[in-house]
Design goal:
The complex is a heterodimer of chains A (113) and B (113).
Chain A (H helix, E strand, L loop, with lengths): L2 E3 L4 E5 L4 E3 L2 E3 L4 E8 L5 E7 L5 E3 L5 E5 L4 E6 L8 E9 L2 E6 L3 E6 L1
Parallel strand pairs in A: 2-12
Antiparallel strand pairs in A: 1-4, 3-9, 5-6, 5-10, 7-8, 8-9, 10-11, 10-12
Chain B lengths: L4 E3 L2 E4 L5 E6 L6 E7 L6 E7 L2 E4 L8 E4 L6 E5 L8 E8 L7 E2 L3 E5 L1
Parallel strand pairs in B: 2-11
Antiparallel strand pairs in B: 1-3, 3-8, 4-5, 4-9, 5-6, 7-8, 9-10, 9-11
Classes of the chains: A mainly beta (113), B mainly beta (113).
Chain lengths: 113, 113
């Protein structure tokens, strides 16, 4: 069965510092991978996704994630965070044949001024 | 393009009362999802519709929860009677035909007293 693990429930980081949010998944078949962001009191917004092709995918606001098949990981990174990045970040995976999303428990990114 | 619309945004009820949530998906999106998100957790799928048909309702607690999507567009999720443990955010999402990406509404935050 598929599962998604986000090891860190919270990640505190200083403003303008780099950050990495970790995501590992387990699946016996090919998958699509997603990162969603949830700002306080808002719904989930798609941040970026990996479907196929280049293993490095980027978002419009400076985040990137790299699909690593051998390590079954899809870690999210940003070289310099801003206070506006304060949010909860969710990793999710779905099988190619079944679009049902399996979710991680989320990681709260806390930006310290 | 309008996003997924949900109402109400917030609802406070007493236990044993009924409650209903409404969702209007993005135009042209034939797949509609209802999720429940508990505090500090990722979303949990309750039911998935393909047009009017509920194709996956295995996680819907059918003794008290019901859902409908009569014309294959908007949908209603009902709880009757509500219990204290139903307090959560109820999210609606939609996706286009044969597309893997789900787009979420802002959610309805339910508090059962």
């Amino acid at each position: 069965a598929q599962s998604v693990t986000q090891l860190d429930s919270q990640v505190p980081v200083f403003e303008e510092a780099p950050v990495e949010l970790r995501c590992n998944y387990s699946s016996s078949v090919s998958v699509y991978l997603f990162w969603y962001v949830q700002y306080p009191n808002q719904g989930l917004q798609l941040l970026l996704k990996y479907l196929s092709g280049s293993t490095l995918v980027e978002s419009i606001n400076g985040f990137e994630a790299e699909f690593n098949k051998s390590q079954t990981s899809f870690h999210l990174r940003k070289p310099s965070v801003h206070i506006s990045d304060t949010a909860e970040y969710f990793c999710a995976v779905s099988e190619w044949s079944n679009y049902q999303l399996i979710w991680g428990a989320g990681t709260k990114l806390i930006i310290k001024p | 393009e309008a996003g997924v619309v949900q109402s109400p945004r917030y609802k406070i009820i007493e236990k044993k009362q009924p409650v209903a949530f409404w969702c209007n998906p993005i135009s042209g999106h034939n797949t509609l999802y209802w999720y429940r998100q508990n505090l500090g957790q990722g979303p949990e799928l309750l039911i998935r519709y393909e047009n009017e048909e509920a194709v996956d309702d295995s996680q819907l607690p059918k003794d008290r929860f019901s859902a409908e999507r009569l014309k294959g567009v908007d949908s209603t999720l009902k709880i009757q009677p509500a219990e204290l443990g139903d307090s959560a955010v109820y999210l609606c999402a939609s996706s286009a035909p044969l597309q893997e990406t789900q787009y979420f509404g802002p959610g309805t935050r339910l508090l059962v007293l």
